């Protein structure tokens, strides 16, 4: 099968999300200029640079009570700050609950029944149960082709790790089992690892 996206795929559901998988989930927390905390998951998320450490996520929709945007992007435009909370398997239901399209004045931490703490390097809340949190300062917002498609880039200014996930000096993801986004309504969980030695490391 071959199709051009502009012509349609003719399938019951768009296969694009199912092709680019698995994807890490950026559970992005922000605070509005009025001090309202927001939390929402984004499956177009990844690390993009080592030095300085940088991440990005993309928002691909809009809410009626925002100006062609979502609460997350609107808050970042206003404050220049956000945090990326890592989603463990244990937090899957809370993450899903926080994906609801709620009024801008709603605190998704409370809606999802999550405890929150205060970040150290930025003025933002984070999910205290998250195994890791990346505190970020906005570097740029890029408007992408298409309606309401926005990419947000940030530099990591602080890193929080749960102590029980540190094993012999390494961050052991099997201790918390990260959640990954697949296509359609599907998710996966990372439990099994294997290592490969790069040719240049031999």
UniProtKB/TrEMBL annotation:
Classification via Pfam families: Flavin_Reduct
MF-aspect GO terms: FMN binding; oxidoreductase activity, acting on the CH-NH group of donors, NAD or NADP as acceptor
InterPro entries, sorted: Flavin_Rdtase-like_dom, Split_barrel_FMN-bd
SMART domains for this protein: Flavin_Reduct
Flavin reductase like domain sequence ranges: 18-173
Protein name per the record: Flavin reductase like domain protein
Organism: Thalassovita autumnalis
